[in-house]
Amino acid sequence: MLYSCLDHPENEQKTDQKKDRSDKERVESEMKEIKISDMKAMDPDSYVLIDIRDEGSLLYGGIPGAVPVNKEEIFKDCRKALSKLSTDKVWILYCQRGEVSQSVADFLEQQGFDAYSLIGGYNAYLISVMQSEPDDLMEKQKRAEASIQKKYHKELFSKFAKACKNYQLIQEGDHIAVCISGGKDSMLMAKLFQEIRRHRQVSFELTFLVMDPGYNKANRMLIESNARQLGIPITVFESDIFDAVDTVEKSPCYLCARMRRGYLYSKAKELGCNKIALGHHFDDVIETILMGMLHGGQIQTMMPKLHSINFEGMELIRPMYLIREEDICKWRDYNELHFLQCACHFTETCSTCHEDGTTSSKRLETKKLIAALKKDNPFIENNIFKSVENVNLNTVIAYKKDGVRHHFLDEYEKKI
């Protein structure tokens, strides 16, 4: 059941058995691995599942029952980092794709622990979930919709509707392309659009648009499987963005995000849409504000809507603007849903990037900073958000509007 990927019975030789046993022990020490199917067949009480992905990746979900442990802490002092785990059980480690966990499991094996790496990592688990798609898809869909209407109505739908009203995101006669990346945010956004249209306060059309920028087969299938389970009629089109940015060394994530948005605008306009909707939420907004200040030396925010510069007559809207990420995660976990993380060629080593082109390291660093500040000030998140609503130009040294720079000295003498 537990085995080395290079240790197969058919490869054993009948001669020189002593050497074979030595080779076997060496290979098992170097690459002890286990398939997801074999792990599921084991007694759950016989092993401990350890999630070594970074904190940013954990937000996308994990395997139920897994214990998150920082891989850097394992290398630093494995006995301290894993002190709360039973050494009487097998330790099964997983990362995003089963690559990083190999080296960590090998390290632990050398320290005397019975450690294995999950082949394919979290992605393998997602594929197994997809392959065991429930027979009664309608029941899964109804549960997800009921949780929006009742259990998470205040946290999700009310804030969605509030953003649409306050920022005038939906107008009579709109045809909105709901852009679905395959992640938790955009999938929930699609369900919220279906729910708000059900209320029939405004007449508008929806197209649930999925762009395949070069996903592998498994990732494409996961998006399609989730769409079926949630009752979202997606329209899929393909592009070669991943290949186009594959050789770019400087800011590939930023370029990828810009190209994806351009493709989405173009396809949406071709389909008769006048707006595209993206799934950025409240946490994205406040993180962007701080990142602009700390890393960009500027005060700006992610706007709830804006006119397209390059596609005449098109607008971009963000109806998830007021929804907290933790509430999105609660809805996902309550409905036992598993969504796609960034699946581009640059994330093969278990990192992640974001729709706006920023990498997880900067986002995660900013997220941790906000969490640390919140310990002393529970209002810190709302205060960051309100800071860009309460800008007093009389107390600003300089600002730009429509590309023109204005300095306080320009008007200073006129106020005497």
Number of strands: 14
| Unreliable stretches covering 5 or more consecutive residues | 1-16, 18-29, 348-359
Total count of helical runs of at least 4 residues = 17
The biggest beta sheet reads: 6 strands, mixed
Oligomer: single chain
Strand content: 5-15%
Distance between the termini: 84 Å
How are the strands of the biggest sheet laid out side by side?
Answer: 1-2-6-5-3-4
SS-based class: alpha/beta
Write down the Rg: 25 Å
The backbone outline, from C-alpha atoms, is globular
Share of helix, binned? 40-55%
* Average pLDDT taken over every residue: 86
Describe the structure.
Strand 13 and strand 14 form a beta hairpin. It is built from 17 helices and 14 strands. The chain has a six-stranded mixed beta sheet, with helices on both faces. A six-stranded mixed beta sheet has the order 9-8-7-10-12-11, sandwiched between helices. The model is unreliable at 1-16, 18-29 and 348-359 (pLDDT under 50). The N and C termini lie far apart (84 Å). Helix 13 (282-296) crosses helix 15 (360-376) and helix 13 (282-296) crosses helix 16. Helix content is 46%, strand content 13%. The protein has 416 residues and is an alpha/beta fold.
